[in-house]
Design brief:
single chain, 179 residues, Rossmann fold, 6 helices, globular, binds iron/sulfur cluster
Length: 179
């Protein structure tokens, strides 16, 4: 019988959540027995090869390309998971949400202390920056949220195994506390 497929992506994130997926260490071999990885930076598959059981989303939506990729994942994944604080609430990139976009661009590309001969990028090939950074659930339906920055590797492992085996996840307090 064909194994279920998992896909992952990083939108406006730092890849720390993907590092946490790899932090399941040797259990990655068990995971490889349970699932096939589809589109993901982990295996560098660029396009979906079919429908996936689970999609893990790192990062929120800061530009139009993030929105497009997120919708692409929603279309191809039965279960979509927001992985980490950036996906769940925008995280660090969302610190710009209280500042008008024009001001952010001026500070980053014209007036910042390290800028020399600055100019605001304006190339049609660049994805359009959104007015603010949106958490994933404000763009598409998200089925589950795994909090943390990054989420604990054991939390990711326990949650994935539970989902793939159709059981309720048993998540002890130690896995979801953040002090
Ligand atoms: S939640 Fe933390 S680790 Fe994950 S992408 Fe955001 S900043 Fe990086």
């Amino acid at each position: 019988m064909a194994k279920p497929k998992i896909a992952t992506t990083s939108l406006a994130g730092c890849f720390g959540c993907h590092m946490s997926v790899l932090d399941i260490d040797e259990r990655i071999l068990k995971l490889a027995e349970l699932v096939d990885f589809d589109k993901s930076p982990i295996n560098d598959i660029k396009r979906f090869t079919g429908q996936c059981e689970v999609g893990l989303i790192e990062g929120g939506c800061a530009n139009a390309e993030n929105v497009e990729v997120l919708r692409y994942f929603r279309d191809h994944c039965k279960i979509l998971i927001s992985l980490g604080e950036c996906a769940i609430m925008g995280g660090l990139p969302a610190m710009r949400n209280g500042i008008p976009l024009k001001e952010c661009l001026q500070e980053a590309f014209l007036n910042g202390p390290s800028v020399v001969d600055g100019m605001i990028p304006n190339d049609p090939d660049l994805p359009l920056i959104l007015d603010k950074v949106y958490p994933c659930h404000e763009v598409v339906k998200i089925d589950y949220f795994l909090p943390g920055c990054p989420p604990n590797a054991d939390l990711i492992w326990e949650s994935l195994v539970a989902l793939l085996s159709g059981k309720e996840a048993d998540l002890p307090y130690e896995l979801i506390k953040y002090d």
